[in-house]
Predict the 3D structure of the following.
Amino acid sequence: MSSITIIGTGNMARAIGTRAVAGGDSVEIMGRDRSRVEGLAQALGGGATAGTWGAVPAGDIVVMALLHDGVVPVVAEYGDALTGKVIVDISNPFNATFDGLAHGDGTSVAQEAAKVAPSGASVVKAFNTIFRHVLESGRPTVFIAGDDARAKAEVAEFITGMGLRSLDVGGVTMAHWLEGMGLVTVGLAGNGIGHGNFALGVAELAG
Amino acid sequence: MSSITIIGTGNMARAIGTRAVAGGDSVEIMGRDRSRVEGLAQALGGGATAGTWGAVPAGDIVVMALLHDGVVPVVAEYGDALTGKVIVDISNPFNATFDGLAHGDGTSVAQEAAKVAPSGASVVKAFNTIFRHVLESGRPTVFIAGDDARAKAEVAEFITGMGLRSLDVGGVTMAHWLEGMGLVTVGLAGNGIGHGNFALGVAELAG
């Protein structure tokens, strides 16, 4: 059982919140629009609560379910309220043509968020390779990246509790390449697969 | 049935050559070291032939089974001998710490090879997300990227003929992100999976 705060009230907030409540997690929703926050908390059920924007999150894990260009500003705005928290960045910072990232080489939203996060907070990249509807109806693999082993273990427990497989790809510098796998996922849907009912995963050999 | 020339005599040349011969393809091996070329052609069997370094390849598809920093120089050295060929780049241009690429943003070995290839040649990125021993003993998914639909169709037919699944992720700019998936594969082996008996693939939902 994990204790989660989701910042955001959009489709990914709803999808992650739904899975978290089903997994028995304690869930808090935060957002700028109070009526949307209360509406989502009520829709999730399972004791999900409506938090106050900018306050210290109730959850040990804080999922930033925001558009990619909102993540860093919101981490900065929350500031010390995130001290000691595990911040989860799920964003896909795509460029306009969906074949590159909105930022350059050697960084990622996760790494930029870590730069403005308070001391004692850790950032983990996760969930960004998964289409929202696949998270709702499938059992996709969740790839994670981050520098803090304890934070990754907490996120892995959260993911496992949702009935999903968590796979650690390495340190936070790998978040850039997970963002690239987000691009590959979109590329596959437009070229190699022709629909969006899939997720990248891993096939293991016996033996 | 495809007609393939493999430039290189190392482990990946052997693995791809073995699968190609098993799939009934016509296979030619080329390399600087004549004795190694003849040794590999003989080991592959199935009528595999030993070609002459720098000559026009017999295969319609030319697989560059070389270390990453050898691909562009060899494409340049072959020059007009590659006119009309489909050049397959399988390389992983990793940096020394295996968390980034040896080249910068917005390019890939495939794109650099395309710059020096003769007119009428096309470059396709493929196979780079697969460990050699998985290619030998498993049925991994092969992700491909390239700008030329006809060339990709030929490579897809080659891959399918080997009994493997080919998935198109988009244009050649996506080769950079397939190289990133090579990094993720190594990262998974070192962190999330703990062994190398796997390959990245795709899980599809029913319906």
